[in-house]
Amino acid sequence: MADNTTLNTGSGGDVIATDDIGGVKYQLVKVVFGPLDTATLVEATVGLPIAPFAAILETGITQIIGVDDTEVSISGDYSSTADLALGGTYSGEILGFQLTSLETGSGAIQTGKGVVFFFDADPDTTSGDTALAAAGAEHNTVIAITQIEANDWDSDANGGVVHKTVAIPFHAIATIYCVYRNTDATAVWNSAAGDNERLNINMWFRRDS
């Protein structure tokens, strides 16, 4: 058979483009795009429209320890859980995070050492907890641990900040959960009346899917 096909051959209908391959005809089409009742032809200088996702995203500042939270002391107390929503169900890699230490009362800016935990499931900690859940269930959901040293902080009279560059891969999830554990003998959060200390986290990540 020859290429191309005449529709309604008895009445001389339109000819459509086809390619004969081994006796089988394959229709040849041109790709177009656009809303209803419009058609824009795809060609060398006009490609299909795409909506690329933002490759680098930020979760935004999220509280870990609040001014009304129970004391987080030197005994290795945990903070409450910070839920870092990714904005969708994504896989990717945490590229960096930032801790900010603030005081809105009469206490001192806390800049001691501690441990930042990242989880792929909610550990549901409460400020002042001394351990994660029994039987290690929450330990199994840890995806990364980062040590914070006292000399990692840059601080002045009004606040302190730590910025860490990391490489922490994560699978397809919608939220990463973060907990801080204090391990410093001199840094105690909300230890007395007038101590209105806060700890916040912000996180940047690369989205891969």
Give the overall shape, derived from the CA principal axes: elongated
Total number of helical segments? 0
Give the domain tally. 2
CATH class of the largest domain: Mainly Beta
Percent of residues in helices: under 10%
Structural class category: mainly beta
Strand segment count: 14
Report the major sheet. 8 strands, antiparallel
N-end to C-end Cα span: 46 Å
What number is the mean pLDDT? 91
Question: Uncertain segments of ≥5 residues (pLDDT<50)?
Answer: none
Protein traits:
single chain; 209 residues; Jelly Rolls; two-stranded antiparallel ribbon; 14 strands
Provide an overview of this structure.
It is a single chain. The chain has 209 residues and is mostly beta strands. It folds into two domains: 5-41, no CATH class; 56-207, Jelly Rolls, CATH 2.60.120. It contains no helices and 14 strands. The strands form four sheets. Strands 7, 8, 9, 10, 11, 12, 13 and 14 form an eight-stranded antiparallel β-sheet that branches. A hairpin with a 2-residue loop joins strand 3 and strand 4 (24-27). The chain is elongated and about 95 Å long. The protein starts with a strand and ends with a strand.
